[in-house]
Amino acid sequence: MYSVLPSTLATRPSNSMETLMVDSNEANKQGYAPSVVEDVSKILKNSRVASVARILNDTANGLKHVYQLSHPTQEDLTYDLFKCRKRENEASMGKLLSVLRSFGIREDDPRLKQTIEKMREFESQIEDDCDTRHCLLTKEQFKDCIRPSINLISQVLRNDLIIPSWGEFTAKVKQIFEECRNVREGKVASYIPQLARQDPNKWGVSICTIDGQRVNFGDAKQPFCVQSVSKAFNYAIVASDLGADFVHSYVGHEPSGRLFNEICLDCNGKPHNPLINAGAIIVTSLLKNHLKMADRYDFALNEYKKLAGGGYVGFNNATFLSERDTA
């Protein structure tokens, strides 16, 4: 049984969920949302919001035209945004990271790994106890740091993420999270002893957008067994490895109209789809079935780690043994 960190979104009546709708294209057409400009103003410690809005728009426009001859590079434009006003030829990596964080991009994002490593290296040369929030780098050091991640940084500064007003979005999600905290309907699964012992009061929400913007609330650090959610991941892994046509020569792609755990076949003698038990068994049997079981396990675990962006993925042997004995 694979264990991962929570990746669930709270659900509630549709009229409240409407508050989560974000028209990213419309937001981009209109430039930076006021809340975004206000957040960046605080980070840059510039109280002139109108000035910050102009600077952000100028930077974004510049980043869109960096491939024109004699135009400043992405690194130069980013440096200009975060350079110190009172100290010549120095810029703040701390402020850059804070701006990225305000857009939902965290320091532990795999795409920032090389940038963070270079930053740590330069900081260690400055002083042993240098605080990232206050350390200043020279222009060349700053540009050297951001170069490996410049495409991501540029995407953020261009306000080109799927959810441009991240602060507003997460505030609404948090509101829904708090409102749903006291919902007590439902029960933990009782058909497997290990699952029946889980704490029903655990409540966490984690969101990761297609651009890698992330936010967590509540018990988001508590690992949990993915159980049947694994069916979707296994299907994606096998279809990517063998091709969708090959996979669907063994399993269909239509709803069965029956319970998920009913063992039955469609009119073509195949399980109805990969997301019911019969179809999931077929899909799993196709997973690197020419390898030994240990190698198949390693392959699957590594694929799950890729899906988790390098985050924690484990295996709950107790639940596996419990399910094998009782299922």
Automatic annotation (TrEMBL):
The keyword Acyltransferase does not apply. Residues 75-164 form the Glutaminase EF-hand domain. The keyword Hydrolase applies. It catalyses: L-glutamine + H2O = L-glutamate + NH4(+). Homotetramer. Belongs to the glutaminase family. This is glutaminase. It comes from Ascaris suum.
